[in-house]
Structure formats: structure tokens, C-alpha cells
Amino acid sequence: MRVECRDLGVKAGETALLEGLSLSFDAPALVGILGPNGAGKSTLLRCLAGYRRPSRGEVLWNGRPLAAWQAGERGAICGYCPQQFEPAWDYSVAEIVALGRDRNLTDARTLDEILRSNGVDPLARRRWSQLSGGERARTMLAATLSTEPPLVLADEPGASLDMRHRLALLERLKAYAAAGRALVIVVMHDLDLALRFCDRLVLLDGGKVTADKPAQEMVTEPAFEAAFQLRLQTHPRRVDRDWVLGLG
Amino acid sequence: MTGRFLLLAAALAAALLFATIAGHDWASPARLASALAGAQDMESRLLLVWRIPRVLAAALVGALLGLGGAIFQGVFRNPLAEPYLLGASGGAAIGATIALLVPLGLPGGPALAALSFLGAWGATWLVLVVSGLHGRPDTAGLLLAGVAVAAMLGALRSFLMLALSDDTVNLQVVLSWTLGGIQTPDLAGLLLLAGLVAAGLLFAIRLAHGLDLLGLGDEQAFAFGLDPARFARRAVLVGAAVVAAAVAFGGLVAFIGLIAPHLARWWIGLRHRALMPASALIGAALVAVCDGIARAVLPPAEIPLGLVTALIGGPFFLLLLARRLRA
Hints:
The complex is a heterodimer. Chain A is built from ten helices and ten strands. A six-stranded mixed β-sheet of chain A has the order 6-7-8-3-9-10, with helices on both faces. A four-stranded antiparallel β-sheet of chain A has the order 2-1-4-5, covered by helices on one side. Chain A is an alpha/beta fold. In chain A, β1 and β2 form a beta hairpin. Chain A is globular, with a radius of gyration of 18 Å. The longest helix of chain B has 35 residues, at 42-76. Chain B has helices spanning 2-21, 29-37, 42-76, 88-101, 108-131, 139-164, 168-179, 187-214, 218-223, 228-250, 256-268, 272-296, 305-326. In chain B, α4 (88-101) runs antiparallel to α7 (168-179), α5 packs across α10 and α8 packs across α12. Chain B has one domain: ABC transporter involved in vitamin B12 uptake, BtuC (Orthogonal Bundle). Helices cover 79% and strands 0% of the residues of chain B. Chain B is mostly helical.
């Protein structure tokens, strides 16, 4: 699986959210997209998933422009997990995972097997309104991975998880990328986890890529400091950053 | 699931039985049996020629209303969306009014069908555009947009009726629509109506998976392989056609499209493949019963069906609205 974007630009009104991004990603890899709030991380992920149409440039999957993909074939090979999810109906966990699984009907596994292999079988009959934030995140990840897609795009999948589940999530995604030779691109905020688990990190700042490196080299990257110092000026958390650096 | 559908079918059978017996002169079950066995006396013939077709027509219109309501709630992703409240029925009624009162030089039946459909479709789009096509319009915005569209269309319909009608007979026909009422159809009409119900169900079932996905929200539906905007256009088309058919045969009947999907969701579940047929069955039973009540309650007069459904459905709607606004 190969995902590319060429000269990708997105504007909302007069504001440029992304300015001329050219990137390419090859499986297998766990790629982290980092950046301060408003850097354009979610916008980039939406473009890569095809949900947001760019104002200029294009996104290609396996060399084929996204515009040429049918909604159905797109869904079959991609697991896109948006940041926000609030269903209109109070679906059960089993129903949500079944709806995710139905996007690729070549999978011979039963729904029970999928629920079990994703560790959400104890939740199967619970309704969305009865789930905790962490259970919701696990449900959505299960639905996203239910078809074992070769491409996974997840927007802060760990945001509502506690530390233990966050670690488990990244371990899971890393193993998924390696074992399935899949391309997993994750928007994340945990710098320490990103440095520890990702193969490659893309740093966005102000709608531009300011660094794009293997994770272990990112620690010494000046742009990495610069990007987050923008936030650190108003919320000085020097200790946190030292701890991050110390981790490498 | 099958057992639950069988119970629904049994409920519908009971409703049909009640509706056939009810009327300004109540028929005994024995009388009904002899009429069905082919007795030639006057009362039996009246039952066969007048009441039974009327009951069947009411049930079929109810099925369309239940189906239309389920599609609307699915597309708008809101359990308070209802074709009547959102102006779709009013749009269909405008189309029908024009077809009836304006000498267009078009053949009556097809023109009425086409104009009703266009009216329902246009009104639905107007509400969709006003309340926000993408994302999920909030309940208050959606209902307000619907109320405004329905009020406009109601005024326009009244104006058309006053301006265009010099023939009191036609005016009577249009008026009876406004209040909702099933006419006794001939055999051809009944078969056409049954065909429309079958076609509506067939098209609706093909929307089932998409409606399930749409309930997850645009972005998640997209993630699971749906093109939400394109799908919504298709679903609105089918929904408008179903509503137009219901209005053409039964006039403006309020709240059935709200109650039936609600009961279906509670009884059968959220997945539209089962929900929509269940909603159609429940709608059929409800309208059959309400039409029976409309015929029986003030003999020898008949009160409009729309009054009965509004009196029963209105409180139901208010209850749901209060619960939702508080949540």
C-alpha cells in the first residue's frame, strides 16, 4: 500500500489550512503525525482519507488519484477512524462493528470472531450511550480494523484512553502494521509515545511540513522544538519536554 | 426476529378485522364471514364493495406513511423527522392541488402523481437545505425549518384553492385531502396502490444499509464506504416518492410517519432492513384502526382521518419532543 499527496493545499475561506504538502508513505509503517493544535493534522488526515477534497493538489492511493476511487472500494481497503463520532441512533457495539465489517464482504470470519479478536466481545450487546470513553474508542478501533484493511488512518484514537490502554493501542497498531504489512498513519498528541512507537514522524506546523524523519532522529530536530515552543510560551511545561527528550 | 414480525402481522390482521367491522353500522364477525363466503344480500355486498376495499386502501396508505417516516428519520437522522411535520406531505398536496384545479391539459392520473412527487421532493430539499444538508441538523432547527415550509405550503395551497376553484365539487375533493381521508378505491386503484407499496418497500430495502451507515454521522459513514451526500440524494428521492403516493391516496395524514418508525425501532431494533418493513406494517395497522374510528365515531357522519391521527399522534409527538429537548 502506498499513499501519496502532491502539492496538497486546503483553504477554509481565506485561511490556508494546508499549504503545498508533498508526502509519500509506504507500507509497512506506523507513521505519526504530530504538531501543535491548528497545525492541520486532522485536515491532512481527512484529505488522505478522501473525506475532504483539497483546494489544490491531489492524493493518490497506490498511484491512482482518490477521485477515481468509488466510495465502496475506498472503504474496503481503508480503515479511517475520525476524531469525532456521535451516532444518531443508540447502536450496540456489535451493530457498529458489523457496519464496519460490512464494508468488505470478502472476509470469511464471523462477527463473533471479529469481536473476540478485537477484545470487545464482552461489550457486544452494550449500547453506545452505555459505554465509557475508553470503551467507545476501543469499539471504533474494532470497527475500523474489522476488515483488516491494508491502510489505516486514525485521528487521535487514543485521546480518551487512559495510559495503559493508550500503550496497548499503540502496541496493537505497531504490531498490526508489521504483521499485516499495513500502512498505519496516526494523528497523535503524546510526544513520548510517538517517539517510542512510530517508525516515522511527520511534523506539521502552520499547515506546512517542518520535519519528516525517522522517529529516533526527531528528538534532535530543531523544528520539533520550534513547533511546540509556540505552545510552550503560553503554557510553559519545560519539565514535560525534558522528560520527552530524556526518553530517547 | 421472525417471531416479532409474526406478532406484527397478527396485530395488522387484528387491526384489519376491527376496521372491517367498525363503521356507522357495525358488522358482526358472522356477517363479515358470510360476506366473504359470497352471500348476495345487500349488506354483504356493501361490505365487499365498499368497506373492505376502503380498509385495504387505508392499510396500504398507512404502510406508505410508516415506510416514508422510517426513510425520513433515517435520512434526517432524527427520530422526530416526519414527512408531515417537515412539509413533504404539504408539498405533495400542493402538487395534487395544482393537478386537480389547474387545467394543464395533462392526463389526470399521471399529472397528479408527477406533481405530487415534485412537490414532496422540492419541499424536502428546501428543509434539508435550510436546516443544513451536511452534518446533522439539530432537532430544533430541523423542526422549525419544517414548520416554516409546511406553513408556507399550507398558505399557498389555500390560495390556490380559493383562486383557482370555480367548481365546488373539485374544491370539496381538495378540502378532503387537506384533512386527510381515504377514498374507497376501485379494484384498479387498489392494485395500483398495492403495487406502489411493494415498489416502495423494494426501493427502501435497497437503502437500508446506507441508512444504517448514515446514522453513524457523515464522516463515519464515509469511512465505512458510503458517499453520504450522494446517498442522501437517492434516499430523499425514494422518500419523496413514497410520501407523494401516500398523499395522493390518503391526503394529509399527520403523525403516522412519526409513531410507526418509533414503535418499529422499539419492537424490532435500529437496523433499517428490518425497521422499515416493520414500520410499514405498524403504519398499516394504525391507519386501518384510525380510519375505522373515523367512520364509526360520529354516525352517520364520518370525521376526517387526519383529525383522528392528529388527536392520537399529537400528544405522542409532544411527549417525544419534551424528552428529546430535555436530554
